[in-house]
């Protein structure tokens, strides 16, 4: 069992809600190196040769198992680019818990770019959870630029659940999904920015297979002078259906831009988009303040509800 | 009274629903020249010097009056670029009926670009109707690229009602609106494309004044192998509200892309967007066919209802 320092343990508590343990299939990356890892009977993790990252092989007998692959950056000034590939065998059922936390107490920027590719076999069901978090008193930025590529074969189901908790100064998210016949995609993206943070999220979902469907829900809160840009794109090239929904709350001097794109290239493509940007619900605020909460407490309750 | 040829009269019936008459304030442009025009007590039309187009002055005593400014292009191979400016005095109430029809029986492209600017004074109320239409057996294209700029002062109200009926091979629409305090904008855009037609509509609405509001409704039907792209953008830089709705029906091998953009730069900007692309309603089709309509007739009824 590898001994973990205090900062790493604290950061892990934020980004791995289930509690990170060194058992089953797992890989802990710290400051640009793979600190410890383990395999299970059905899940094997291999370090890549020639470049940073791991290959994760999930066999067809995997049912209800978890893989934990957290990343912690606690050295100021680091740029960590890592390539992780996931090969999920047909019929497998797995939950992958990723997440990255940056503790930056220095004056240099710390950055982690996780470039993930998911090759999901026929009928497999994958849940991917990713939490992003930044902390530390340093003036250096905490930067996270994840790239997520998802290839879904026939009947595959993928749930993408991403959360940016707080403390991330700059993020550019790129997500690409290609869907085969009857594949299903569920995306739940939650994002909170504050102070002068900037966040951009680009997503492109290609529904190429007949019967494929996608549900994309994005919820965000922008506080302070932060800036957010959302650009989800759903392309239907076959009989398919998609529903994209982006809701944002703006506070203070924040700015949110939502640019959803829906593109129907097939007679039987049915795609719906909804987006709304507005301030916090005044009626709810008044009600909670009547119950004795301060304005700040009332806002916190409403935001928590909105993001959860 | 200027004598009009048969083609011009037929095209006018399509683009001026109220019936074009040479009375009151009007200007008929034909094949790149101003064929005839008239003023009224409150509305004066002046030909521009140095470039094509007219200046239309609508005074503050105008109440419930119409201005008709149709454009007919019946010569194959013409490129007609015209600049029309409208100066609407504070408190005026006016309906401006524009529209352009191209009859192209030749093998060369015919194109009309109407570049319109509306300077709308405090509290004025303007309704602007614009119908686009193409016909003729020629192989030359019928091309319409309108540019519409709308400047709304305090309390001004502007209704923009545009229809592309049929027969327009290529169109790129550019619409820009700047809104002052408490200004109101209503946009109803209807567009039908067929065969290999292409249509693009870009709109940017800047809600700069406190209390400004915009309602934008876009409805389209894409048949054959036609292509449509919608890019409406609503920017809220003050306390304001906007609702953008784009609905499209695709048929045959058509393709529709909808890229709405909502951008909130102010705490009290509330902006909502909805978009949907899908095929014709199957239940309605079945019901109408049960009533004895052929498939084509049933489709025509549903499309008419959707666009009207």
UniProtKB/TrEMBL annotation, chains A, B:
GO terms for biological process: iron-sulfur cluster assembly. SUPFAM superfamilies: Stabilizer of iron transporter SufD. InterPro entries: Fe-S_cluster_assembly_SufBD (IPR055346), SUF_FeS_clus_asmbl_SufBD_core (IPR000825), SUF_FeS_clus_asmbl_SufBD_sf (IPR037284). Pfam families: SUFBD_core. Residues 89-306 form the SUF system FeS cluster assembly SufBD core domain. Belongs to the iron-sulfur cluster assembly SufBD family. This is SufD family Fe-S cluster assembly protein. It comes from Dorea phocaeensis. The lineage of its organism: Bacteria, Bacillati, Bacillota, Clostridia, Lachnospirales.
